Queue: 4 jobs
Job 1
Amino acid sequence: MNLRNTNEIAIDAATDAVLGNYPVEGCRYNHGMAVDSEHHRAFLLCNGTKTLTIFALDTHKAIAHLPLPAGADVVKFDPGLGRIYAACSSGFIAVLQAQDADHYRKLEDFAVQKMVHSLAVDTATHRVYAPEQQEDGRPVARMIVYEAVEPAHKR
């Protein structure tokens, strides 16, 4: 779980018990969190530093900080693609790629309507679902479905 006010996480994924609190260096106001359970990594949205911090759960250390647009709210991980998505209410879905357990890079900040601050990933189809609540400042209620594609250099 994220301990936003102290910039820490408190976890033991094996037992679901809180065994200790671990500071997340370089992260202020950690908000959303997703976990890569295979590689023991947590992906933390750090609103105070506008970064995605990758945290090694075994060593309790931050191993990378990648820039995010303002308003990052929800983060999801697709283990099949090794892809991380962060919904940012400023009008973007940040798309990041795990190259391996210790190396990550940003693919793009994909422009969407403002106030998209939630998303879901279907790990079977790799589709990303994002609810929109406004279009160009006018209220709407709709679900947008995005198809994941490989980066141009991998095609």
Note: The longest strand covers residues 138-147.
Job 2
Amino acid sequence: MSAVGASEVVAVVDYGAGNLRSVANALMRVAGAMSPSPRIVVTAEAETVAAADRVVLPGVGAFADCMGGLTALAGMRMALDEAVRDKARPFLGICVGMQLLASVGREHGDHPGLGWLPGAVVALGVRPGPDGRALKVPHMGWNTLSRCAIPHPLLDNLADAPDVYFVHSYHFEPDDRRLVLAETEYGGPLAAVVGRDTMVGTQFHPEKSQGVGLSILRNFLEWRP
């Protein structure tokens, strides 16, 4: 980590994943209100990611395409392992960036993920709504977060049942339910926040979740695991 009082470097990984700029802008907005202000760096360079104090992996699109874009960047897979698993830098995955933490994504075939959190990314499938009719897929819109038994600093200082914004057709089913930090209800419970050690991921988009989302991003930037 950077020395106390120094400005941290937060690497936002640019691998062609769609929502990069909105994530970076939201982080910059939050960082600008902090002192010292973390430096948000959008990068496709493995060396920058390996040296960063924190790493953010956004993601929009198909699992295999996103994983392919990530691994196509020279040295990036190794840099992520070095920063997050070897150096234990705080890591935030967003939407498909969270799903890539899984062992496998089952979207149009089976595709290996980063394998940091054992489990599979699977289709939402047909889910009944309160009136018995099938809910729409993709799951798109505002849904309420429900914290699980294990508290996490990412969810500190939020309302008891905050609403956040989702857009997804697939979801992460971890092998170990203790990896689920918060859920949402959509025809049954879905993992909304997952994590362990210094890594955490959100299925929803904090950058689109207004004040709640900005609070979550600030919690991430202030997190000292």
Note: Helices lie at 20-32, 46-51, 63-71, 76-86, 96-99, 210-222.
Job 3
Amino acid sequence: MQGYSRILVIGGAGFIGSSLCEKLVNLGNHVVIFDNFSSGNYENVEEILEKYADKTCLLQGDCKKLKDVKKAVSDTDIIFHFAANPEVRLELNDPKNCFEQNIYATHILLEALRQVGNIKRVVFASTSTVYGDADVFPTNENYGPLKPISVYGASKLASEALICAYAYLYDFNVTILRFANIIGPKSRHGVIFDFIKKLRKNKNELEILGDGTQCKSYLYIDDCLNAILTACEKGSSHVEIFNVGSEDWVSVLRIAEIVTEEMGLKNVKFRFTGGAEKGRGWKGDVKKMLLDISKLKALGWKPKYKSEDAVRLATRHFLEIKR
């Protein structure tokens, strides 16, 4: 990335955030990592901070505190707002958490930007869950009306709206990235990680939430990072939205098969919970998701890995992690 002297990554110790920090530093940028470590992990950034001490610094702070955020955004050209509670399931992320950690934290950031007034661009990590149960596949950025079925999806959509309004009112550019399921090193949640944990406890049986027919797009982190940079460097609109995902999807059942294959297990019994209505894994789980990525592809980006390949690569990485 060119033209920015100081880059701030909010949520920089999280899965995507820390991976992005490493990518940006390797490209020669000076990166400020901001995180409160509620869901981020210091181990994700420890090596970056040690290896690139002259190009990185860590600010530990809370996105919900204006004083902390104003300190972080001062003398910053571009901000990657990747901080959020990443859990979609209601029992893991209740409505209050979604509001405080996603919507309210975004409001505080925007207020800090308004008061500081020197920001060129904000890049926001949104989600495919803003589309809810789409009835057109692949789903493009102009699909509507948007009807999220999870509080998480609703919180991201509300944040998108706030960011757009502030961008127009206070004159900074915005790139909104609606991510599919991003997987790879440094991730510590999601279906693959859950399957491995369950199988390490019981190699004979695997509980699968829902009916196993849920089909979604999975994108490997390397492809995701290249997509982020492409959107930032080649996007031209004042406020621009991009879908970021693979060109195909994979079922939960197939993911279970890949995980058991990679673990070298045979004759594993799959036990389906049935889940919520229509075989969802839980209430609020979007059963089918495939994004239309033609807009980003038109700028020269294309995913290297298909969904199954991404799942297999991520599985192999997780299996290298000590129990």
Note: The first strand starts at residue 7 and ends at 10.
Job 4
Amino acid sequence: MTDEVSIEWVAERVALVEFDRPPHNYFDAELIRGVADAYERLEGERCSAIVLASAGKHFCAGANFASENPASSGELYEQAVRLFSYTVPVVAAVQGAAIGGGLGVALSADLRVATPDSRFAANFARLGIHHGFGLTVTLPLVVGHQRAIELLYAGERLDGERAHAIGLCDRVVPAVQLRAEAIALAQAIAASAPLAVRSIRATMRGDLPARIREATVREGAEQAKLFATEDFAEGVAASGERRAPRFLGR
């Protein structure tokens, strides 16, 4: 489709959507739009399941706050809402890091396959900002309200095994088997009656797209306020320098 987002048919009625901005696969509105456009295109095809994957060492490290305008979340979140708005089930193959907004991308999928070396973190508070990408809704749905609070407050990083133990990912396999396992899971979905799967999915997800839209409005507003703080500047600097941040609450 583009230089950064591609579609490949990998099995009967199963399509692989891959985004390619290595090594960290930082996203912006353009990249997320490309993924959403791929989903939209597959709505009109004989597609029963999508595997969402990325090139390179890491699945997605979220936004690159060190080099991009952090205040431009409006268009990004408009595109993020689109990821939740289509009817085809999605299985994410998560290698390396799914950090911050990258965790939000992983959680936009119905199911997640990871490796023992995968890393998951909602590290927003460690950067001095509010979480985003709809994690207000998706994280509690997957791990429960109390565990979501812990992950958001402390920004703890979990490997694949620990993530699997709390339900943050659904399967853990060796790295060499990651895509094959994600495709096999997608094939298992595709083997079911497609109209039934989409009907069940609609029932189980309910008003999820509307809830994501509402959540990202608040998330974006809170982020915009915190982007102007000294703590945010310190969080980004500390992350880049690989040291503990020294927050002052201002």
Note: Strands lie at 5-11, 14-19, 49-54, 90-94, 97-99, 111-114, 119-121, 157-159, 171-172.
